[in-house]
Structure formats: C-alpha cells, structure tokens
Design goal:
Elements lengths: L6 H8 L5 E6 L4 E4 L1 H7 L3 H4 L4 H4 L6 H11 L3 E7 L10 E12 L2 E11 L2 H25 L6 H12 L6 E6 L16 E10 L3 H4 L9 E4 L4 H8 L3 E4 L9 H12 L2 E11 L2 E11 L7 H38 L10 E8 L8 E9 L4 E12 L1 H18 L5 H15 L5 E9 L4 E7 L5 E3 L7 E2 L4 E2 L12 E4 L5 E5 L11 H6 L12 H12 L7 E8 L13
Parallel strand pairs: 16-19
Antiparallel strand pairs: 1-2, 1-5, 3-4, 4-5, 6-7, 6-11, 7-8, 9-10, 10-11, 12-22, 13-14, 14-15, 15-16, 16-20, 17-18, 17-21, 21-22
Length: 565
C-alpha cells in the first residue's frame, strides 16, 4: 500500500463499517480487507493479502475486466454481481452490489477501493424484475427494427446495429455462403469459411474492429474458435478470452490477442437457425467496463437470434429465388445478333433494385425472307422464376411462328392461341415490328404493349406511333391489328418495356409522352442513344427495364429477290 494510505488510518475508518471493504493495488492484489468482507468471502484477511482478486475469488473472475476499466479511465463502476464465495450460505447463488473507485496519490494511480454490500432477497428480486423488464423491452423493439426488408445483408446489418450498444459493445453476423451464384473458394482443411454480412462496434470500436473482416468479405475460423464450436454443436458458446487461451491454435490465439488489445474481453456466440437449418452465427462481444454475460443474457441472446433468424430465412429464400431467376433470365436473354449487315441493333437490360424480384422482360430479333426482319419486345406479367420460365416459353413459340412468314397481327393471333392451349398461366404484353428495308416500311402490331417510338435522323423530336392495341397474350381473346409506318434508312425504331416509363402516381400517357423528346443526330450511335435514355428515364425505376433500338443503315440500293410466281 502506498505510504499516503496509512494502514492504521484505513483500518480505523473501515474496520467497523458494516459493508465489505477492500483496498487493491494497481495489480489488483489485496492490501487491506475489513472484517465485514472477511465474513462475506469466508476467508481471513491474511488469505487475501498479496493475492489477486481472481486468485481469491475464482467464481467472480469476470469482474477483473471491470476493475481494470476503473484503473484505466478513473470512472467509478457499480455492478450487481452473483456467484459463490468461500463463506457458507443457504442462499445459492448469492447477490452483491459492488462499487469500485480508483485511488490516486501524488497524481499517480495506486489502486482501487472496493465496497461490497450483499443484496437481500427483496432487493435482489427487484433488481431481477428490472432486468427482466429491460430484456422484454429489448425483444419487443427488435420485432420492428429487424427484418424491415427482404434483403439479406440489410437484415444482418439491422441485427448488428440493434444489439450495439444496447446488448454488446461489438456485434458480428456471419452467414454461410449462398447456395446459388459464384462458387466460393475452398478453405484449408479444418477451417470454416463464412461470409461476414454485418459488423458493428460502439463508438471508436466500430472502425477498429474492421480489421477482423469488412462486411462482404469471407472470414476463416479455426476449428477451436467459438464460432466454429457454436455451429458444430448448434449451441451458444460463451468465451471468456481472459481466462481460456491455453490450448488454442495459433490462429485463434492471435485473433483473441488482437481483440484484447482493443479492450475486448468476452464473446457470446449464438447460432442463427430457422426451419431446422443453420443460417450462420451472431457474435456478441463485451469490452472492459461492461458487465460479463449472465445466464439471463444468454437466454435473451438466444431468443433474439431465433427471432432474427426467421427474418434472415425469409431474406435468404428471396435471395435464392432472385438469383436463380436472374441467372435464368440472363442465360435466356442473350444479346440478339444482327439479322443482316444492313440492320443495326442495340439493346439494354436493366434489372430493378434488389427490393424487387426479377421480371419477365424480353426482346428478340428474327431474320425473315427477302431482307426483312422481325423485332419483338415483351413483358411477362409477374416476377420470379416462374416469370423467367414463361418468358422463355413465349420467346421459343414466337421464333417458331416467325418462320411461317406471317404479318405481325397474325403472329400474335397464333401465339395467343398456342399459349392458351399450352395451359401457361402467365399473360404477357408484346409488341411486334416487321421492318422491310427495301420497301421502307415497318408493320407494327401490339398485344397490350406500350407504343413504339420512331426517331428520324436529325429530327428535333421523335414521334410516338399510336398503334391499335389488342389484349395481352394468353387471354384467348385475340383481335389484333397491324399498323404500317414509314421507316426508311436511318430512322430509328425504339421499343421498351413499362419499367422505363411507369411511375407511381403518374398517368402512363404522360410518362410515355416524354419519350417524344428523344433525338439522334444523323449517323449518331445507337449505343449512345440507349445510354442517354437510361440515364434520363431509368434512374428511379421500380421494375426491370428492357430497351431495343434498331435502324437500317444507309447504303446503295439492293435489288429485291424476284417473286417466283
């Protein structure tokens, strides 16, 4: 004990105090214990002096981190602690209220003052009730703050942000790699590889913990790590890094040492399970100065993880269907090849934001006889895998019918009949255009689709052609008509799906009318035109967008093949 703290003076002040009192040096070794604390601990003062706090009371070793926090920052701590001491007691476990104050002399830190009072049953029950109310409030709030979207990473981030700082100083959410998409490289034998979906720390810790793996990166866990053990046993794992480092692999020990350097001391890892399948894990970490995880904390963490896992499972199922539909649509929606050297084609497909399932937008270009070609733009109603499969069905039937060299309205009639007979329960809109580069005309027919736009070279405005529109395909009503539109060399035919123009709260005719502002200089690039269209009209789209622009290149006249009749 420093010379400024005279033992006799300290004894005179504290020996008669009914509360347990002790003085610890800067190494947490006892230098004084009053009689009340001797009775509480069940040990004489001599058994305390010279020994560290964890050595005397192994049952309460978790408080060592709190004591070091007081030494470090000088802020007093008040803790409700539970456990057993060497004293015989009928109350098991026992509860105490402990207060820790830093001691200084001459401006230097020299130790701690500890005051301990045992809590009566009434006070203990009141404290437990207050803690339970806090946990109920925490779980109730979680229901409205976690799972606000069907995006997997957003849900994981909401979970991490919710528990910090209300329940932990650092939180990480790690999930198994997705089942659909690009394969993940294999880890080394005995290593578990997970994708870090979210990571959050309180205050300065938020930036400091990023060294352990940014969200979106894959993180490897050794076989003896808490995360690996949690998922292998499918049970919560409480890892006290201060007292359980022996026997750990170098991989895990290095990570624990790096965590301790940031003041992190204890981790609680909880599995995320839903519908009998593991999604990943939630890691909750507490730092020096925060109370150790109690048994009640573990129960609350498990309940919180169980509720969050249901939201994550919904997001995972959505992500899986979204990925399958996107890959299916991408493989089917191949870039069409130009049907003739004199025909120039440019296309774009712009998926909606992740909050919307992939749609059934599609386009195609089919060469016909006598230098003519058929262009199609369609949109299958609905979203998801079923819409992408239906889109493929429509596209295949259309290519089959195009070979019969029918006018556009008859192709739609036949297509409508074939879809109805096939039993395909997905209606679709469709716009067909047959361009005759020799005759300088374009024949257009519509099945409930938005009208085409024609852009003459160098014109100040485009013109939107009013086409008589029949019902969507698959309804069996028929009644389609062909409209003939002049379309000479250099004139651009622009076709699109409703995602480009449809906006919530706005009449569709007003939205389509804006396309009349499209222009293209003579000889201008179609690719540039589509880039400008998507920049101007595609920014706030809520649905997928497909666009197609085509024109006949200007050049020397080519004789039409004579009619064999």
């Amino acid at each position: 004990m420093p010379s400024s703290f005279d033992p006799a003076t300290v004894a005179a002040l504290l020996d008669g105090n009914p509360a347990g009192a002790a003085v610890l040096d800067a190494d947490l070794r006892y230098t004084y214990v009053n009689p009340a604390l001797e009775r509480l601990n069940g040990l004489r003062a001599g058994a305390h002096l010279g020994h560290t706090f964890p050595e005397v009371l192994p049952e309460l070793r978790g408080q060592a981190a709190v004591l070091r926090g007081v030494l470090r920052d000088g802020e007093p701590r008040e803790q409700t602690i539970t456990g057993r001491t060497w004293a015989a007691s009928s109350a098991e476990p026992r509860f105490w209220r402990a207060t820790y104050h830093r001691l200084e002399t001459g401006g230097a830190v020299c130790g701690l003052m500890v005051i301990v009072v045992e809590i009566s049953d009434v006070a203990r029950q009141r404290a437990e009730l207050e803690e339970a109310r806090g946990h109920v409030a925490l779980l109730s709030t979680a229901a409205v703050r976690i799972g606000t979207t069907l995006d997997m990473d957003t849900t994981c981030r909401e979970l991490a942000e919710f528990v910090v700082p209300a329940f932990a100083d650092v939180a990480a959410v790690d999930v198994f790699p997705p089942e659909v998409g690009h394969p993940v490289r294999r880890p080394e034998p005995g290593v578990l590889r997970l994708r870090r979906a979210a990571l959050r720390g309180e205050g300065p810790l938020d930036e400091q913990v990023q060294r352990f793996g940014h969200p979106g990166e894959y993180v490897d866990f050794a076989a003896d790590s808490a995360v690996t053990r949690c998922l292998a046993e499918n049970e919560s794992v409480l890892d006290d890094w201060e007292d359980h480092q022996r026997g750990r692999s170098a991989f895990t020990s290095d990570r624990i040492a790096a965590s301790q350097a940031l003041g992190l001391r204890q981790a609680l890892v909880v599995p995320l399970n839903a519908r009998g399948r593991q999604i990943g894990s939630l890691s909750l970490v507490r730092a020096e100065g925060s109370p150790a995880f109690s048994d009640q904390d573990v129960v609350v963490a498990q309940e919180l993880a169980g509720r969050a896992a249901v939201d994550l499972d919904h997001a995972r199922r959505y992500d899986r269907e979204h990925s399958i539909a996107r890959e299916l649509q991408g493989s089917l929606l191949a870039e069409p090849r130009g049907p003739h050297p004199h025909v120039e084609i440019a296309t774009r497909y712009l998926p909606a934001e992740r909050g919307v399932l992939v749609g059934g937008d599609w386009f195609d270009v089919v060469p016909l006889q006598d230098g003519r070609h058929l262009k199609a733009m369609g949109d299958v109603m609905g979203h998801g895998v079923e819409a992408a499969v239906a889109m493929s069905h429509y596209r295949s039937l259309l290519r089959l019918l195009a070979a019969e060299d029918l006018p556009p309205h008859q192709i739609l009639e036949r297509l409508d009949e074939m879809v109805e007979r096939s039993g395909l329960d997905r209606a679709a809109t469709c716009l067909l255009a047959v361009v005759d580069r020799f005759g300088g005309v374009c024949e257009v027919a519509s099945a409930g689709h938005l009208p085409p736009v024609f852009i003459d070279p160098g014109a100040s405005r485009a013109h939107i052609v009013s086409v008589e529109s029949g019902p969507p395909l698959g309804t069996g009503f028929g009644g389609y008509r062909t409209t003939t539109v002049p379309c000479g060399p250099g004139t651009v035919l622009f076709m699109y799906t409703d995602g480009l123009v449809e906006r919530r709260g706005e009449d569709i005719d007003v939205s389509v009318a804006r396309l009349a502002s499209l222009t293209l200089p003579a000889g201008g690039s179609l690719e540039t035109l589509l880039d400008q269209v998507l920049d101007r009209f595609g920014g706030d789209a809520e649905d997928d967008i497909a666009v197609l622009a085509s024109r006949i290149r200007e050049g020397p006249p080519v004789l039409r093949r004579p009619d064999p009749t």
